[in-house]
């Protein structure tokens, strides 16, 4: 059966395709400085919400987010890209990033403390939040 090898401890897991469990493990890693409040509704945004989705809020100075984008795009969930703070930076994988003043207001209304911020959203409410650097490993 595919995927059984990754059921034990997290060591040795590869994030080429991140099943929902791996995504939740990534998002469940608490980091100091995360100020996004769980359970709060998302501020106004331009997309039609899915039942469960991932929202990535990032800026131009986040560095290489390739591993993070790969993991998120492999999750099977709709991914929303929000490019905040006014410097245009494209999102990968054919995603169209929301940019401009509205995107920055969205980020500030969420109280994002560190970019990138990844939000797992269920029915328009923040279910889980992760902020900070991603090294491509589940530790």
UniProtKB/TrEMBL annotation:
Organism field: Deinococcus caeni
Full protein name: Penicillin-binding protein
